[in-house]
Amino acid sequence: MKNILFLVTLIVSPVFAHFLSITSAYADAIYDPATGTITLTSVLAGDGSSQTESIYATNVQVTAGEILSMGKAWPPYIHPSPWPAEVDFYDMATQELKISYIRTPDTSIELNDVVIKVGSVLGAGFSESISAGVADYKFRYVLDESLPNEWKNEFEIIMNNLQRDIPIYAKSEWYSMPIFAWKSDAERPLPFVSGGCICGGGGEGGHFRWMSLEISASEFEYNNIHRYSLVPHEYFHVYQLSHVDLPGFKWLMEGPAATLESIYVQEHYGIDYFSTAQGPNLSEQVRENPSSYESYSASREADINYSGSVFMTLVLSAELQKQGLSEVEAHRKIFRDFNLAKPTLENWEAKFLEVFLISVDSFYSIIKNYELSYDGLLPSEDLKISQIFSD
Ligand SMILES: [Zn+2]
Question: From the CA of 138, how far away is ligand 1's center (Å)?
């Protein structure tokens, strides 16, 4: 009943679309021992599925009911500025509120991942409902001043396109991530953030992840499309990571991400990044020893700009089309269905066979039959990402 009240309170609040993205850091959740009130900077309420509406609200005040987990001590040094305020998650299925980071006003208590039942809801600032089937995973942007406004504007457009076409759904352990973007000739936003990656860190206080977009200054100088294509590449890794558990496994993670990156720039900018930036780096190693592309270290020198991982992805698509699938269906199997099958390091070969109807060994031996070139393998120019991810 209390939980129903919690939702009703959120739903009746006004909708303010600009709260869709949090661009500046405020305090996180604050527990005031004097009044027993918890103020949540922002909270996402959902059930972990794409089937129901979610609610996003800011400045929500609640009291705690039962405390299910006290979380872990979270010393301030792992939460430095400009790390953006955390989002909390109310799981409508289990009716539990997970507070990412909570502190008292005097910071005498700082905890990570506290889980409570909500006592009562005292009020909310603003809220919006997110329709079923619309991405509710929350990215928190930290876009450095060193980036031109043109880049920042384009970044927002790209993120909106990606969230529309490749929706990522929030769930209890996976609902929000900061994105740090800056120009490479400026100072890093935080000492531990560098390069282009989905990176992780943390320790005793808990694990945390972020997206790092270090945009090379030379890419602005030479108008290199990679300054934008990095965004769909890294975004797709977040989509993958919401389903798969393949740490350290290379080609099935990087091949689709780098291929999707090229499909994105083909669809939105009319640029053939496959032929200009990836294909020229192809190495014979991909035909001679494709299994070496399972490992980052074993293929590091051969797989420049993921040329070989992309080649394997393109060959897989070609083989699926030989089975009778359309181009869109073949891409859907690779980019969506394989991920939805939740492959892990233990079961990925079985999942590969189940989804693609070809064993990994057969696939690896077929690669030798292909010329070392992207010729004849490139996706059609009219292939759209939205087609790949919808039925
Ligand atoms: Zn990558």
Answer: 20
